[in-house]
Amino acid sequence: MNALKHVLFSRVGKRHLHLVKLVGSLLILIGILQIVGSLAHMSDSWDALENFNNCTVEDSSACAEVLYRITGTSVWAGQTSLGVTQAMSILIKPVVNFFWWIAVLVVGVLFYNVGRAIPNDDKDMLLHHRHKKH
Question: Which of 4, 65, 95, 112 is the most buried (most CB within 10 A)?
């Protein structure tokens, strides 16, 4: 139990640092930033999809280039509208990315709240057991 205490708590200067809470807070920060980024990418992908479907035959090569740069989806030469499969592949990637970062955020919150996860009765039992050994 003592070795575990040294893993979970580290001394920095005159203060004790709870490493699990530190990891949790970093995951929360990264999760929030990436969620904002994935929402922006989702919006860009939707706009690129709408703009491509509004292109004319004369502008199709320029619209295809913009679509490829934003979403990574290539289209055939002269294609002026996207099929259902192409549209779904454009929209599904940012949505999955968004939910991935939501999951990272939830894990970060769980790590951050690790001290509150053990009910008081169990904490008392652990403390009582530890004092009995010594």
Answer: 112
Q: Distance between CA 42 and CA 48 in Å, rounded?
A: 10
pLDDT at 74 over 50: yes
Q: Tokens representing 99? A: 């939910």
Structure confidence at residue 66 (pLDDT): 87
Please report which confidence band the pLDDT of residue 116 belongs to, taking 50, 70 and 90 as the band edges: low
